Amino acid sequence: MKNIYVDMVGDLFHFGHVELLRRAREFGQKLIVGVHSDETVMTYKRKPVMTMKERIVVIQSCKYVDEVIPDAPLVVTQKYLDDHQIDLIVHGDDLTDEDKHLMFGEVLSKLIMINYTDGISTTSILHRLNYYGHNNHKAKKFRSMLTPGKPGLIMEAHNGLSAKIVQNSGFKGIWGSGLSISAALGVRDANEASWTQVLEVINFMNDATDLPILLDGDTGYGNFNNARRLVQKLDQLGVAGVCLEDKIFPKTNSLLDAKQELADIAEFCGKIRACCDSKLSRDFVVVARIEAFIAGAGLEEALKRANEYEKAGADAILVHSKKATPVEIKEFMAEWNKKENRAPIIIVPTTYFTTYEEFANLGVSLIIWANHNMRASVFAMERVCKQIYEEMSIKNLKDISTVKHVFELQNEDELQEAEKKYLTEWKSD
Fold it and tell me: Which domains, and CATH codes, for the chain?
């Protein structure tokens, strides 16, 4: 009779564990399972959610298990096998050659490696728990704006103050423009501002308003790994979504008269999948931005990319054009609408425009006014600076906000009320 040994953590015991134990049992007549202590596990991965005692109780209940050894060693020696009368060792195929020699060096000839069950792991279960447990209410608001035939309107903002103005103006959502944020920071729209610097601006914007924010995430600041890290941090902050464009890093602004190099479709699809898999909430929105028209690649390329990005899991598709008329958008929508239940289409009419009704009739789901607050700010500041410099006076200044209104935008009244509540004079009895 052969005794088979499996060592494991067994945290959040799932069918993958059961399948491993079932297959191990087929190599002999008795299955012995060694369970690692919390302290042992923490030498090579995170602390288990379940205690060793809890894990042992669950593993003992599995019908394929005949015996459980608590506090099993990480390194298995011949003496350990002899003490427990073990003939063969079965382990999953996730070990490197270095790991195998470290853990089973003395008894390597008795080690059998088998494939783990696809599609299940303790890590994936923990991710699911985070995914269903994290509530991003602003993302839910934003999703409700993606209505084909009745497109929502969102306005650009580039700091907390402009975000507040957008909300007070009646808009229901905000575009966190990469161009505008870069301009406000005094750098070019070529990823000269790092993603953490952009994230800090977005955090202030998100705190200043109740509106959902869609961040212009450029190309994701690198490959899939950089992009999915960005998604996780945005979702943690309660930002509604991110838009990623299919060009190479560092990005080139789409409105520049410069070479626009498109990303490889397969690589960008991988980036989209990674971002969708990394969301902490089911409502966070990942938008794939197609730059085929910008690069002069034409309608066929734009449609091919849109179809692939939709399959990769993008929640919406942004189709960009810098023509003086919406001709490319009309051509795209005519083809896109030939099939039902397609991903929502977002447009950015910066260089072109027609009526809202015509965009609605095309089946567009969202319209972005992408940089107009920043440009209005530049125009106003240049005018005021020029006038004050030339006149050496502020006597004739017109069309400038009052300081009182700035205080209102900063929510100064709330601080004064809080001071009355919390800065009360202390009196002894």
Answer: 3-127 (3.40.50.620), 136-370 (3.20.20.60), 378-420 (no CATH)
